[in-house]
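Protocol step 6 of 9: fold each sequence in the batch and record its structure tokens directly after the sequence line. For illustration, a two-sequence batch is reproduced in full.

Sequence one:
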Amino acid sequence: MAESRRARASWGMTSVASEHDPLLGAWATLGEPRLTTVLGRSGVGWVGLDAQHGHFDDLSLRNSLGGRPPGGAHARTGGGQ
């Protein structure tokens, strides 16, 4: 099973997008909550919010996490002290 998922992932995101595969994700750096919401609905398994090197501030992080669609990708924040 895991081998076939990896094989499908190598052919592109569309073959695994509906599965929310934890190996396939997106890293957001722009600090734009609407874009983060779109990424969360795109079918990836997770969306990383770069709070250290990206353009996220406290408000954009709150708005990004609050706008997460039900059943969408998991949100992960990184880079905070």
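Sequence two, same batch, same settings:
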Amino acid sequence: MILLRRLLGDVLRRQRQRQGRTLREVSSSARVSLGYLSEVERGQKEASSELLSAICDALDVRMSELMREVSDELALAELAHSAAATPSEPVPTPVRPMLGSVSVTGVPPERVTIKAPAEAVDVVAA
């Protein structure tokens, strides 16, 4: 069974570790007890939307970015789960909706690579 709270906790932990921050620092900034934040990161507690907002603010991460990463992890977990359940059938390739045109200003005209969990996307600044 795929537990959303576990995936969410994994993503929160990765975000915190990418910044080189400790549980103590983030819990203090978010005004959440260290123990509770630890349980959320380990997927043992369900985080309310208010708590997620406080943690995202403390990490200076948009909640939409956090949820997008959780969504990507969930999609991969579902594919792995369905592949394990029916190994004789091919696993469909996930299709992501196109975001449409995105305008970026102030970016030097050089090639940038954005790495996502399941793929690498090349972005060329115009």
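Proceed to step 7 once all outputs are recorded. Observation for sequence two: The longest strand covers residues 111-115.
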